[in-house]
Amino acid sequence: MRKKKKLDERELMEMYKIEHYAFWFMFWALFSSMFIQLLFCDASFQQISGEWVVFMIAAIASSIAYYKGGHYDYYTKPGIKSYLLYSIIFTILTDVIIAITFYIHHNYSTIKGFVITIAIYGGVLFVVIFASMAITGEAIKKRRKKLEEQFNESNNHDK
Amino acid sequence: MKNLKLKAARAGMDLSQEQLAEKVGVTRQTIGMIEAGNFNPSIQLCIAICKALNKTLNDIFWEDTNYA
Fold first, then answer.
1. Under 8 Å between Cβ of B2 and B35
2. CB < 8 Å to A8, chain B
């Protein structure tokens, strides 16, 4: 049995806002915690597995909910421009992290080898990220069309 | 944007913010924030407020724009 809320719509919206900021803070704090432990504290995957599980549940659950609602992003629409933009941004960010990790944990005799390694990782990352964004973006476009048609059909039934 | 029409309509019915809030089923703070222009109510809440004050949506929630 669902309990009736004792909040009015304004209070509800304010609470949603609070929970929104709290969720995103926790999400990125978890990510940062795992990152710092793996990179700088020599932690094994087993040591961060708890955080990883919680992080992945939140990430997957959010993604499924976004897909179901046909939601993509706050600032862009699904399309080649946004796929390229986000692929470049995330490739650069991830490549920088990889570069730092490799520099700390490996001894490179020449800088050339280091640069080539990072470039190859960057190339592969870009392709993987772009492909993932394109697949999810196109899936969301299809989902939006389906949702639009769903409401059109119900309007026709009312007539 | 402040909703002075709402304030005037409420005063015209001799209702306090608390009394109007109770009639409509929201908190006094919500009515205060709507009047101060700090919260945009949903259409359902707008209709509930209009019914409580015996006014139409136009009377309370229509924005007057001056066309030069």
1. yes
2. 25-27, 30
